[in-house]
Design brief:
The chain has one helix and 25 strands. With 284 residues, the chain is mainly beta. Strands 1-21-19-23-17-14-13 form a seven-stranded antiparallel beta sheet, with no helix packed on it. The chain has a seven-stranded antiparallel beta sheet with strand order 2-3-4-11-6-9-12, with no helix packed on it. It has a four-stranded antiparallel beta sheet with strand order 5-10-7-8, with no helix packed on it. The longest helix is centred in the last third of the chain and has 12 residues.
């Protein structure tokens, strides 16, 4: 008998704001984040009202983790203390490894229209939290896309997509956490059975439509996050059509201590990050 990954929880995100007043939905993050290890936070932003996004994210610091911004619609400009400048546009990804420290800004490059996408925070192991920062600006044409025999369009952002019939490496490969990050566009009546490494933490976020997860009696509606067990197979079906993020990674199993934009393993390391930022040594 097939053993499917169990649905451990289904939750809705919470409306909030960040940066200089950008409206967004915090899908998960904050207290209890250990249950999502190695992931720390997922934000969804989406609005056609400029006053909800136009102020953007002025210069701010990070240390100890990676940020992954996946843009569906709109244009956002990245600039950082290392001199990197990148234009994030619909279908593109910004993968930033803050590590020891980075100071960057993310500002809208539009004054009207829709701004829509996601930002994921991915933890770093303690051994690399103080390594050199880096930045990748990945344009839409450099992100692999494929269509399965069932008609599901798959955007392979990170890791290795494998459904038993086709394999495709993503645009980004990372050690330690081994993230898998896929965007499924599922037409009505379609199914997909992505293979994931045993032991990987797996999350599904339905951002449009409804999704049926094998072993779960009720369909999952839009704007819901599904947390799955770490073992078993995964079979997804959408009777009416859906767009779904699948995010999986290898848990680090390390202590998580967070203070705003700093994520370390101990309180002492957080206090050091605060001193370094105060003394202008965060990025030294």
């Amino acid at each position: 008998m097939t053993q499917f990954r169990k649905v451990l929880s289904i939750q809705a995100g919470q409306p909030t704001s960040d940066g200089a007043g950008v409206s967004l939905t915090r899908v998960f993050g904050g207290p209890g984040v250990e249950q999502f290890d190695p992931f720390l936070m997922l934000d969804e932003f989406g609005s056609d009202k400029p006053d909800e996004y136009i102020a953007g994210f002025p210069p701010h610091p990070h240390r100890g983790f990676e940020t992954v911004t996946y843009m569906l619609e709109g244009r956002m400009r990245h600039e950082d203390h290392m001199g990197n400048v990148g234009l994030l546009q619909g279908g593109g990804v910004q993968w930033m490894t803050a590590a020891r420290g980075i100071i960057h800004s993310e500002m809208p490059e539009q004054e009207e229209g829709v701004m829509r996408g996601f930002q994921l925070w991915l933890n770093l192991p303690g051994k690399t939290k103080l390594s050199d920062a880096s930045y990748q600006d990945i344009q839409p044409e450099n992100i692999p896309r494929l269509t399965t025999d069932a008609g599901v369009e798959v955007v392979v952002i990170a890791g290795q997509f494998d459904d038993g019939s086709v394999q495709q490496a993503g645009a980004v490969q990372r050690p330690d956490t081994e993230p898998q990050y896929f965007d499924f566009h599922m037409p009505a009546g379609s199914s997909i059975s992505p293979r994931l490494p045993e032991g990987h933490r797996a999350l599904l976020y339905v951002y449009e439509g409804t999704l049926e997860v094998a072993g779960q009696p009720q369909a999952v509606s839009a704007s819901r996050l599904v947390r799955l067990s770490n073992e078993g197979e995964l079979q997804l079906t959408s009777t009416a059509g859906a767009r779904v993020l699948l995010i999986a990674g290898k848990p680090l199993g390390e202590p998580i201590v967070q203070y705003g934009p700093f994520v370390m393993n101990t309180r002492e390391e957080i206090e050091q990050a605060l001193r370094d930022f105060r003394d202008d040594r965060l990025t030294a």
